Amino acid sequence: VSPSEMLSFAKSQVDYILGDNPRATSYMVGYGNNYPRQVHHRGSSIVSIKVDPSFVSCRGGYATWFSRKASDPNVLTGAIVGGPDAYDNFADQRDNYEQTEPATYNNAPILGVLARLHGGQGVYNQLLPVAQPKPVPHPKLTPTPASSSNPITVEQRMTDSWLNHGRTYHRYSTIVTNKSDKTVKNLKISISKLYGPLWGLTKFGDSYTFPAWTNSLPAGKSIEFVY
């Protein structure tokens, strides 16, 4: 892959974030005409002291402002939210923190990308040497095909693998699909020997269920989670 191809790909990803996507939604708050209006952010959600000088406690802010369905009174200009799922689904709801929270791990890396794109197509010669990591063997995962009588299929694939202190870790993406002709309203997923966080599902006791922004899986539809 040539440097120009990598730069073009990076630009395409930024264009997607800024609105060149199937939803025509900008995931940078305040950019464009269609951007998230209910950001999962306390400072954005609570009205300015200049408008209402009343004291807002920690619990009071949650009780009074968190569940409001109105747009944020303060626009968090330039913040990048979590964004859509793998199928371009996005729910602009304040309690949908997986998609509407402007976390630092979204905003920090894009600063470098935008700075490089601002520099244009010029080649930078003063690059520091980079130590190439040793390749990590990726075990082949063969998904078990679901039987014709099983209305729910689960497809898992490994998306990353790395070494840390001599131990190998893996990241997986899993797609759950409703193959039946009915809507699934009760879902219980168990994962044994789980290390690290899981995104895209809601913890429910010793297992997981639908994410916060939905409570069912219609026929023929899928949801994806990552761990």
Describe the structure.
With about 230 residues, the chain is α+β, with helices and mostly antiparallel strands. The chain has two domains: about 5-120, no CATH class; about 150-225, no CATH class. Helix content is about 20%, strand content about 15%. The protein has five helices and five strands. The strands form two sheets. A three-stranded antiparallel beta sheet has the order 1-2-5, with no helix packed on it. β1 (about 150-165) and β2 (about 165-180) form a beta hairpin. The mean pLDDT is about 85.
Question: Features of this protein?
Answer:
single chain, 227 residues, two-stranded antiparallel sheet, 5 helices
Low-confidence stretches: none
Strand content: 15-25%
The major β-sheet equals: 3 strands, antiparallel
Helix segment count?
Answer: 5
- Helix content estimate: 10-25%
Could you say which overall geometry the principal axes of the C-alpha atoms support? globular
How many domains, in number, for the residues?
Answer: 2
Average pLDDT number = 84
Q: Could you give the order of strands across the largest sheet?
A: 1-2-5
From N to C, what is the helix and strand string? Answer: HHHHHEEEEE
GO molecular function, one term: cellulase activity
Catalytic activity: Endohydrolysis of (1->4)-beta-D-glucosidic linkages in cellulose, lichenin and cereal beta-D-glucans
Enzyme class: hydrolase
Pfam families: CBM49, Glyco_hydro_9
